[in-house]
Specification:
Largest sheet: 8 strands, mixed
CATH topology of the largest domain: Rossmann fold
Number of helices: 12
Number of domains: 5
Strand content: 25-35%
Strand order of the largest sheet: 16-15-17-18-24-23-22-20
Radius of gyration: 46 Å
Structural class: alpha/beta
Helix content: 10-25%
CATH class of the largest domain: Alpha Beta
Number of strands: 37
Distance between the termini: 58 Å
CATH architecture of the largest domain: 3-Layer(aba) Sandwich
């Protein structure tokens, strides 16, 4: 029980002060006149002033409250390195035992893992949240068990008590890491650019570790290349992307004996390969209604450099007009088909016929161009079945069809073959059909398939669109010149633009249009893995190897014709290797080296400056687990072999009683008695005469 004297004045304190001042003046006059009982009069006035102040005695019944110690335990991924997990458990047990031995003290334990979206160790956030759950008046101290690498130092809370850090790890720890700098998101195919790499050794590196390391580089999971490189120096690596689309470059450093982890010894860089300018040569054998379809398609893309020639005046035309009066430019055949043919990414023969404009040697050069990696698209019209057809030239060696010389002039609706429904060029095009189906075409050059793949067919299942690979290059034949009807919306039209765009991109070897592909995308830690195949048999299960070397086999259910997909939650951040048959893919979930493994060496340099203002400090668990003592507020709370907390002596008020010091009538009797006593003294002695 606690007693306290309180005042509840009957009049404002200003009035009491004024009356007190008046009383002093009257006493001064009494003293000056020599009145014998002046001091009794002063006491009487004082009693009256005290009565106006109304003093009372307050009694409180208090229940003492236990002090609270907050323990924040870092269980992030880096705490699993070395023997840190064992150190952490030993420290928790020691803190629990020490706090239990202290009188009137409770322990609150809060554990934290890795922050979401690779945010790292958010120990200060966890401490602030723990502090918000407790009354500040009861918090006697905070203890954080961690390796010291904290990523939210700017969010340290305002602590009312000492902050103590119990540091895991060992002073002898060391680690090697690979850092990739200035990696672009996009790069131009065929143009060299530099990636900057650096291999760093951190911590107490033993003398036995050499100054060089083995660096392995893999592009798109192909055959790796290994180089010996110096440690601690920035390396400028010249890179040229091998293909368009996403290129996955994986860099890894061989692990060294004794290092903390090899999780940061690898990095993946995903760079999208783009073409600087796509050069297309379009040769139209004669003007026709569908000629502008190709021109509009290619000119609509600002990245396409189109060279287009339409043969309006064949060599056999003799009308007597002098050459110097002709406005038609000469067809630069030698320049295009001999000198600069390798500069073109795609050559389109649109209803072209052999009229002697291109010599057979030039056509042979086109065949060599395809075999060396070039692409040719033949958009065939009636001339393809004639005697001057491209098939009657060296081009027959690479064409996947043979014309029968028959041209079918009747209405028909193009349709996809079973293979076409699985092939990426035509997959899903049926879903783009207008109500009632695709519009009709009215001409088909009859051809017989001799190689390649038939994706679309015409009447009586005759080949309409045939694709073929020829050594390093690709060839496509569209056995009709009626695609423009779809573009004009005839009978509802059809996906003309999408079909021709996909066809052109397949010929340009865009990875997303390959027949056999294994792709994956990551949304947080959720992987969506897709396999595309034109084979009739299912590709089988998928093997996924995680960053810790653990492998899991996943089924790949079919979600559409030729498309298999699975969704899987990755258990941790890092690099995952996907394998299915002869296809492999590497994907990074989060960064290839998570934030927890960027700086793996335990250090007190980050948290030490935060603990010092609270009189706390950093204590290495390796040097021995400390005792916990109680220290007064403002005194140092850390020393050799011990750490301190500050008792708060908080309490809960259970009951409050207030009683007047004296009743009002008692003040009046006392004041009257003093006044009468003063009067009697003055009357008996008489006033001193001046």
């Amino acid at each position: 029980m606690t007693q306290t004297l309180i005042f509840d004045p009957l009049v404002p304190w200003v009035v009491i002060a004024a009356l007190g001042g008046l009383a002093v003046v009257l006493l001064a006059v009494a003293v000056w006149r020599g009145l014998g009982g002046w001091w009794l009069r002063g006491l009487a006035l004082g009693v009256l002033l005290v009565a106006l102040a109304n003093p009372a005695l307050q009694e409180e019944e208090r229940s003492p409250l236990n002090d609270i110690v907050i323990l924040v335990v870092d269980e992030s991924a880096s705490q699993g390195l070395g023997d840190r997990a064992a150190q952490t458990e030993a420290a928790i047990a020691r803190v629990e035992a020490e706090v239990a031995a202290l009188p009137n003290t409770e322990l609150r334990v809060h554990r934290l893992g890795d922050g979401e979206d690779d945010a790292g160790t958010l120990a200060m956030t966890a401490l602030a949240e723990a502090l918000a759950e407790e009354p500040r008046a009861r918090v006697a101290g905070a203890i954080v068990i961690t390796d010291g690498v904290v990523h939210d130092l700017g969010l340290v809370p305002n602590l009312p008590a000492p902050l103590q850090v119990l540091l895991t790890g060992a002073e002898a720890d060391w680690d090697r890491r690979l850092v990739v700098k200035n990696a672009p998101a996009f790069a131009i195919m065929g143009e060299e650019f530099n990636l900057t790499l650096k291999i760093e050794d951190l911590g107490a590196v033993p003398a036995s570790v050499g100054p060089e390391a083995q660096l392995t580089i893999t592009v798109d999971a192909e055959e790796p290349a290994t180089y010996t490189v110096p440690v601690g120096e920035e390396l400028d690596l010249p890179v040229t992307l091998p293909h368009g689309g996403m290129n996955v470059l994986q860099f890894s450093v061989a692990g060294a004996e004794g290092e903390l982890t090899d999780r940061n010894n690898a990095a993946v860089v995903q760079i999208n390969g783009v073409r600087d300018r796509l050069r297309v040569l379009l040769v139209s054998g004669e003007p026709h209604a569908g000629e502008r379809v190709w021109r509009n398609l290619l000119k609509s893309d600002a990245s396409v450099d189109l060279v287009h020639f339409t043969i309006l005046r064949p060599p056999e035309k003799q009308d007597g007009i002098p050459v110097d009066e002709l406005s038609l430019i000469a067809f630069p055949t030698r320049e295009l088909f001999i000198e600069k043919i390798e500069e073109f990414d795609l050559i389109i023969f649109d209803r072209y016929r052999m009229r002697g404009i291109l010599p057979m040697s030039y056509i042979e050069n086109v065949v060599k161009y395809v075999k060396n990696g070039g692409t040719v698209l033949v958009a065939a019209g009636p001339e393809f079945g004639a005697v001057d057809s491209l098939y009657r030239s060296p081009m027959a060696e690479i064409l996947p069809v043979e014309p029968t010389a028959q041209v079918i002039e009747e209405g028909f609706r193009p349709k996809l073959t079973d293979l076409g429904r699985r092939h990426p060029v035509t997959e899903g095009l049926e879903a783009l059909a207008p109500e009632g189906g695709w519009g009709r075409w009215f001409r088909l050059v009859e051809v017989v398939q001799t190689a390649g793949q038939v994706l679309m067919s015409g009447p009586d299942d005759r080949p309409l669109l045939v694709l073929n690979r020829v050594e390093k290059g690709r060839v496509a034949v569209l056995a009709s010149d009626q695609a423009w009807l779809w573009g004009r919306g005839y009978e509802g039209g059809g996906p003309q633009l999408e079909l021709l765009r996909r066809l052109a991109h397949w010929m340009l070897k865009e990875p997303e249009l390959e027949e056999e592909t294994l792709t994956a995308t990551a949304d947080g830690q959720q992987l969506t893995i897709t396999r595309r195949s034109v084979a009739e048999a299912a590709p089988g299960d998928l093997k996924v190897t995680g960053p810790d070397g653990a492998a899991v086999v996943l089924p790949m259910p079919e979600v559409g014709p030729g498309r298999y997909e699975t969704v899987w939650d990755a258990p941790m951040l890092g690099l995952y290797r996907l394998e299915q048959g002869d296809l492999t893919r590497v994907i990074a979930v989060g960064p290839s080296s998570p934030r927890e493994f960027v700086d793996t060496i335990a250090t007190g340099d980050l948290l030490g400056p935060l603990a010092a203002p609270t009189n706390g400090g950093v204590t290495r668990i390796e040097d021995g687990l400390p005792d916990i003592r109680e220290v007064r507020d403002g005194r140092p709370a850390v020393g050799r072999g011990w750490i301190g907390i500050t008792p708060r002596e908080a309490y809960l008020t259970a009951d409050v009683k207030v009683a007047a010091l004296l009743p009002g009538w008692a003040y009046l009797i006392l004041a009257a008695a003093l006044a009468i006593a003063a009067w009697l003294i003055e009357g008996r002695k008489g006033a001193r005469r001046v």
